[in-house]
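The instructor's notes for this session suggest beginning with a concrete chain rather than abstract definitions. Hand out the sequence below and ask the class to guess, before any prediction is shown, which regions might be ordered.
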Amino acid sequence: MPYVGAIYRPPSEARSFILQITVGCSHNRCSFCSVYKDKKFRIKSLEEIAEDLKEARAFAGNIRRVFLADGDALIVPQKKLLKIMEMIHQALPSVERIGVYGNAKSILKKSPDDLAALKALGLEIIYIGLESGNDEILRRVHKGDTVDKMVAAAEGVHKAGIALSVTVILGLGGKALSQVHAVDTGKVLSRMDPEFAAALSLMLVPPAPLCEDYEKGMFELPTPFEMLEELENIIANMDVTHCFFSSNHASNYLPVQVWLPEGKEEILALIREVINRRDKNMLRPEAYRGL
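After discussion, reveal the predicted structure:
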Protein backbone atom coordinates (compact mmCIF):
# COMPACT_ATOMS: atom_id res chain seq x y z
CA MET A 1 0.00 0.00 0.00
CA PRO A 2 1.60 3.32 -1.04
CA TYR A 3 1.06 5.21 2.22
CA VAL A 4 2.53 8.71 2.42
CA GLY A 5 4.69 8.99 5.54
CA ALA A 6 4.05 7.31 8.88
CA ILE A 7 0.49 6.19 9.56
CA TYR A 8 -1.23 6.51 12.95
CA ARG A 9 -4.48 4.99 14.14
CA PRO A 10 -6.32 4.48 17.44
CA PRO A 11 -5.43 1.28 19.37
CA SER A 12 -8.98 0.01 18.84
CA GLU A 13 -8.46 0.11 15.06
CA ALA A 14 -5.60 -2.41 15.17
CA ARG A 15 -7.50 -4.90 13.00
CA SER A 16 -8.91 -2.34 10.59
CA PHE A 17 -7.76 -1.66 7.04
CA ILE A 18 -6.19 1.81 7.10
CA LEU A 19 -7.30 3.84 4.10
CA GLN A 20 -5.33 7.07 3.81
CA ILE A 21 -7.63 9.69 2.32
CA THR A 22 -5.73 12.73 3.61
CA VAL A 23 -2.02 13.29 4.07
CA GLY A 24 -1.10 14.86 7.39
CA CYS A 25 -3.29 16.95 9.67
CA SER A 26 -5.42 19.93 8.65
CA HIS A 27 -4.52 21.78 11.89
CA ASN A 28 -1.04 20.47 12.72
CA ARG A 29 -0.23 23.26 15.18
CA CYS A 30 -0.68 21.49 18.53
CA SER A 31 2.51 22.11 20.51
CA PHE A 32 2.46 18.70 22.20
CA CYS A 33 2.24 16.74 18.95
CA SER A 34 5.28 15.32 17.17
CA VAL A 35 3.47 13.52 14.34
CA TYR A 36 2.61 14.73 10.83
CA LYS A 37 5.30 17.45 11.08
CA ASP A 38 7.02 16.03 8.00
CA LYS A 39 3.88 16.19 5.87
CA LYS A 40 2.10 19.01 4.09
CA PHE A 41 -1.64 18.54 4.43
CA ARG A 42 -3.57 17.56 1.35
CA ILE A 43 -6.62 15.53 0.42
CA LYS A 44 -5.87 12.57 -1.78
CA SER A 45 -7.49 12.36 -5.20
CA LEU A 46 -10.29 9.90 -5.90
CA GLU A 47 -7.95 8.18 -8.36
CA GLU A 48 -5.34 7.55 -5.64
CA ILE A 49 -7.98 6.24 -3.27
CA ALA A 50 -9.45 3.99 -5.95
CA GLU A 51 -6.02 2.43 -6.52
CA ASP A 52 -5.60 1.80 -2.78
CA LEU A 53 -9.02 0.15 -2.61
CA LYS A 54 -8.21 -1.98 -5.65
CA GLU A 55 -5.03 -3.21 -3.94
CA ALA A 56 -6.87 -3.88 -0.69
CA ARG A 57 -9.49 -5.93 -2.50
CA ALA A 58 -6.82 -7.96 -4.31
CA PHE A 59 -4.72 -8.78 -1.27
CA ALA A 60 -7.02 -8.62 1.77
CA GLY A 61 -10.43 -9.65 0.52
CA ASN A 62 -12.86 -10.00 3.43
CA ILE A 63 -12.33 -6.65 5.14
CA ARG A 64 -14.95 -5.77 7.75
CA ARG A 65 -13.55 -2.58 9.29
CA VAL A 66 -11.94 0.47 7.69
CA PHE A 67 -10.25 3.41 9.39
CA LEU A 68 -9.87 6.64 7.42
CA ALA A 69 -6.47 8.30 7.93
CA ASP A 70 -4.58 10.65 8.39
CA GLY A 71 -5.30 13.09 11.17
CA ASP A 72 -8.76 14.63 10.90
CA ALA A 73 -9.84 12.94 7.68
CA LEU A 74 -13.34 14.16 8.51
CA ILE A 75 -12.29 17.57 7.16
CA VAL A 76 -12.76 16.21 3.61
CA PRO A 77 -15.67 18.09 1.97
CA GLN A 78 -18.96 16.26 2.38
CA LYS A 79 -19.62 15.48 -1.30
CA LYS A 80 -16.17 13.94 -1.75
CA LEU A 81 -16.32 12.08 1.56
CA LEU A 82 -19.64 10.49 0.63
CA LYS A 83 -18.15 9.45 -2.70
CA ILE A 84 -15.16 7.87 -0.92
CA MET A 85 -17.45 5.91 1.38
CA GLU A 86 -19.48 4.70 -1.57
CA MET A 87 -16.24 3.60 -3.24
CA ILE A 88 -15.30 1.67 -0.11
CA HIS A 89 -18.53 -0.33 -0.17
CA GLN A 90 -18.25 -0.96 -3.90
CA ALA A 91 -14.68 -2.26 -3.65
CA LEU A 92 -15.07 -3.96 -0.26
CA PRO A 93 -18.68 -5.12 0.11
CA SER A 94 -17.90 -6.95 3.36
CA VAL A 95 -17.15 -3.68 5.22
CA GLU A 96 -19.43 -3.26 8.24
CA ARG A 97 -17.88 -0.30 10.03
CA ILE A 98 -15.89 2.82 9.17
CA GLY A 99 -14.06 5.00 11.68
CA VAL A 100 -12.35 8.37 11.40
CA TYR A 101 -10.43 10.99 13.36
CA GLY A 102 -12.22 14.33 13.68
CA ASN A 103 -11.81 17.59 15.53
CA ALA A 104 -14.43 20.07 16.68
CA LYS A 105 -13.95 22.23 13.60
CA SER A 106 -14.44 19.40 11.10
CA ILE A 107 -17.41 17.95 12.99
CA LEU A 108 -19.15 21.31 13.31
CA LYS A 109 -18.68 21.90 9.58
CA LYS A 110 -21.03 18.97 9.02
CA SER A 111 -24.75 19.66 9.32
CA PRO A 112 -27.01 17.16 11.12
CA ASP A 113 -28.06 15.88 7.69
CA ASP A 114 -24.40 15.52 6.68
CA LEU A 115 -23.59 13.42 9.73
CA ALA A 116 -26.73 11.34 9.22
CA ALA A 117 -25.69 10.65 5.63
CA LEU A 118 -22.25 9.51 6.79
CA LYS A 119 -23.85 7.29 9.39
CA ALA A 120 -26.06 5.73 6.70
CA LEU A 121 -22.95 4.83 4.73
CA GLY A 122 -21.34 3.06 7.66
CA LEU A 123 -19.54 5.73 9.70
CA GLU A 124 -19.87 4.12 13.11
CA ILE A 125 -17.29 5.95 15.24
CA ILE A 126 -15.54 9.33 15.36
CA TYR A 127 -12.38 9.80 17.44
CA ILE A 128 -11.83 13.29 18.79
CA GLY A 129 -8.95 14.63 20.86
CA LEU A 130 -10.28 16.73 23.73
CA GLU A 131 -6.78 16.65 25.29
CA SER A 132 -7.85 18.89 28.20
CA GLY A 133 -11.09 20.22 29.61
CA ASN A 134 -9.43 23.52 30.50
CA ASP A 135 -9.61 26.31 27.93
CA GLU A 136 -6.41 28.00 29.13
CA ILE A 137 -4.45 24.79 28.61
CA LEU A 138 -6.02 24.33 25.17
CA ARG A 139 -4.96 27.87 24.30
CA ARG A 140 -1.40 27.28 25.53
CA VAL A 141 -0.95 24.14 23.44
CA HIS A 142 -2.51 25.77 20.35
CA LYS A 143 -5.26 23.19 20.08
CA GLY A 144 -7.38 25.50 17.95
CA ASP A 145 -10.63 24.48 19.65
CA THR A 146 -12.46 25.43 22.84
CA VAL A 147 -14.26 23.32 25.38
CA ASP A 148 -17.66 24.61 24.28
CA LYS A 149 -16.92 23.72 20.65
CA MET A 150 -15.84 20.23 21.72
CA VAL A 151 -19.08 19.75 23.63
CA ALA A 152 -21.15 21.04 20.70
CA ALA A 153 -19.33 18.66 18.35
CA ALA A 154 -20.04 15.76 20.70
CA GLU A 155 -23.73 16.63 20.73
CA GLY A 156 -23.82 16.54 16.94
CA VAL A 157 -22.14 13.15 16.83
CA HIS A 158 -24.58 11.73 19.38
CA LYS A 159 -27.61 13.07 17.52
CA ALA A 160 -26.44 11.30 14.35
CA GLY A 161 -26.24 8.00 16.20
CA ILE A 162 -22.48 7.76 15.70
CA ALA A 163 -20.32 6.47 18.54
CA LEU A 164 -17.91 8.98 20.06
CA SER A 165 -14.43 8.20 21.37
CA VAL A 166 -12.63 11.00 23.23
CA THR A 167 -8.92 11.15 24.03
CA VAL A 168 -7.32 13.17 26.84
CA ILE A 169 -3.66 13.63 27.72
CA LEU A 170 -2.30 13.23 31.24
CA GLY A 171 0.35 15.81 32.10
CA LEU A 172 -0.70 18.34 29.45
CA GLY A 173 -1.09 21.15 31.98
CA GLY A 174 2.38 20.59 33.38
CA LYS A 175 2.96 20.61 37.12
CA ALA A 176 1.52 24.12 37.48
CA LEU A 177 -1.94 23.21 36.16
CA SER A 178 -1.92 19.50 36.88
CA GLN A 179 -4.93 19.27 39.16
CA VAL A 180 -7.10 21.89 37.44
CA HIS A 181 -6.40 20.07 34.18
CA ALA A 182 -7.56 16.78 35.69
CA VAL A 183 -10.70 18.09 37.39
CA ASP A 184 -11.83 20.17 34.40
CA THR A 185 -11.14 17.29 32.01
CA GLY A 186 -13.30 14.93 34.04
CA LYS A 187 -16.12 17.48 34.08
CA VAL A 188 -15.96 18.11 30.32
CA LEU A 189 -15.91 14.37 29.60
CA SER A 190 -19.15 14.28 31.58
CA ARG A 191 -20.63 16.95 29.31
CA MET A 192 -19.46 15.14 26.17
CA ASP A 193 -20.73 11.79 27.54
CA PRO A 194 -18.77 9.60 25.10
CA GLU A 195 -19.24 5.90 24.55
CA PHE A 196 -15.47 5.52 24.78
CA ALA A 197 -12.76 7.61 26.44
CA ALA A 198 -9.03 7.09 26.62
CA ALA A 199 -6.18 8.71 28.51
CA LEU A 200 -2.69 8.97 27.06
CA SER A 201 0.31 10.28 28.98
CA LEU A 202 2.29 13.20 27.60
CA MET A 203 5.58 12.18 26.04
CA LEU A 204 7.81 15.01 24.86
CA VAL A 205 9.23 13.85 21.56
CA PRO A 206 10.88 16.16 19.00
CA PRO A 207 9.83 17.91 16.84
CA ALA A 208 6.90 18.73 19.13
CA PRO A 209 7.23 22.48 19.89
CA LEU A 210 6.51 21.85 23.59
CA CYS A 211 9.90 20.13 23.81
CA GLU A 212 11.59 23.50 23.48
CA ASP A 213 9.56 24.94 26.38
CA TYR A 214 10.54 21.91 28.47
CA GLU A 215 14.24 22.31 27.67
CA LYS A 216 14.09 26.02 28.58
CA GLY A 217 12.45 25.23 31.93
CA MET A 218 9.19 26.88 30.86
CA PHE A 219 7.21 23.64 31.14
CA GLU A 220 7.62 21.10 33.96
CA LEU A 221 6.40 17.58 33.28
CA PRO A 222 4.48 15.91 36.13
CA THR A 223 6.06 12.82 37.65
CA PRO A 224 4.60 9.37 36.92
CA PHE A 225 2.70 9.34 40.21
CA GLU A 226 1.44 12.88 39.65
CA MET A 227 0.07 11.70 36.31
CA LEU A 228 -1.70 8.90 38.16
CA GLU A 229 -3.20 11.49 40.48
CA GLU A 230 -4.52 13.22 37.36
CA LEU A 231 -5.97 9.92 36.16
CA GLU A 232 -7.66 9.48 39.54
CA ASN A 233 -9.16 12.98 39.45
CA ILE A 234 -10.36 12.65 35.88
CA ILE A 235 -12.27 9.46 36.65
CA ALA A 236 -13.53 10.79 40.00
CA ASN A 237 -15.06 13.80 38.21
CA MET A 238 -16.64 11.82 35.39
CA ASP A 239 -20.42 11.46 35.47
CA VAL A 240 -21.26 9.59 32.28
CA THR A 241 -24.12 7.44 31.05
CA HIS A 242 -22.18 4.38 29.88
CA CYS A 243 -18.55 4.74 28.86
CA PHE A 244 -15.64 2.37 28.40
CA PHE A 245 -12.62 4.20 29.81
CA SER A 246 -9.09 3.00 29.20
CA SER A 247 -5.50 4.06 29.75
CA ASN A 248 -3.94 1.08 28.00
CA HIS A 249 -1.99 3.15 25.46
CA ALA A 250 1.76 2.43 25.43
CA SER A 251 2.48 5.92 26.81
CA ASN A 252 0.76 5.22 30.12
CA TYR A 253 2.41 4.15 33.35
CA LEU A 254 -0.61 2.22 34.63
CA PRO A 255 -2.91 0.49 32.15
CA VAL A 256 -6.54 0.41 33.30
CA GLN A 257 -9.81 -0.50 31.63
CA VAL A 258 -13.21 0.08 33.18
CA TRP A 259 -16.86 0.56 32.34
CA LEU A 260 -18.21 3.74 33.91
CA PRO A 261 -20.09 4.37 36.04
CA GLU A 262 -20.36 0.70 37.03
CA GLY A 263 -16.72 0.13 37.92
CA LYS A 264 -15.86 3.63 39.10
CA GLU A 265 -15.21 2.99 42.79
CA GLU A 266 -13.29 -0.22 42.17
CA ILE A 267 -10.92 1.36 39.65
CA LEU A 268 -10.42 4.45 41.82
CA ALA A 269 -9.46 2.19 44.72
CA LEU A 270 -6.88 0.45 42.54
CA ILE A 271 -5.36 3.72 41.29
CA ARG A 272 -5.24 5.14 44.83
CA GLU A 273 -3.48 2.04 46.11
CA VAL A 274 -0.75 2.41 43.47
CA ILE A 275 -0.41 6.13 44.26
CA ASN A 276 -0.18 5.53 48.00
CA ARG A 277 2.37 2.73 47.70
CA ARG A 278 4.66 4.81 45.46
CA ASP A 279 6.21 1.58 44.18
CA LYS A 280 7.76 2.18 40.75
CA ASN A 281 7.75 -1.58 40.15
CA MET A 282 3.97 -1.31 39.76
CA LEU A 283 4.40 1.05 36.80
CA ARG A 284 5.25 0.40 33.17
CA PRO A 285 9.04 0.88 32.80
CA GLU A 286 10.17 3.89 30.79
CA ALA A 287 11.81 1.56 28.27
CA TYR A 288 8.42 0.09 27.40
CA ARG A 289 6.61 3.40 26.99
CA GLY A 290 6.04 4.84 23.54
CA LEU A 291 3.72 6.67 21.19
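Then share the key points. The chain has one domain: 11-284. The chain has a mean pLDDT of 96.
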